[in-house]
Design goal:
Layout (H helix, E strand, L loop, with lengths): L16 E5 L5 H13 L15 E5 L10 H4 L1 E5 L6 E5 H7 L1 H10 L8 H5 L2 E3 L13 E2 L2
Parallel strand pairs: 1-2, 1-6, 2-5
Antiparallel strand pairs: 3-4
Helix pairs in contact: 1-4, 3-4
Length: about 140
Amino acid sequence: MNRQTTLLNSQDAPAQWWVVDAADQVLGRLSVKLARVLMGKHRPTYTPHCPSGDFVVVINADKIRLTGSKADLKVFQRYTGYPGGQKRFSYRWMLENDPETLLERSVRRMMPRNKLRAHRIARMKVYKGTEHPHQAQRPQPLP
């Protein structure tokens, strides 16, 4: 077994473009797959300190499933900083009104909390319908 860790230069690994159809997929399981691809852990040359992940285009984000009663019981919270400024939304409301944010925050929380997280999240493009403006990059379906 090789004990030497592969050290990757970020210019040596060109990023690929993948397209993922989120229709009828469970939110958590899809988020795990997307986080692995965005971090680059699917490649044999994965290096933790280099941004070696790929670009991911997610379509049909409005058709994501939540299992059990999570849609009604889980709550998305945010705070404006002012007294009485706490906003609470159920996951069902988020799924109907803003599914892009729901998926993005789910993937963001599955990534390591370091300086590369914002760079990796920026490589994920999420769209409600089947149309996306990234046809020129020729994204391949994620296996």
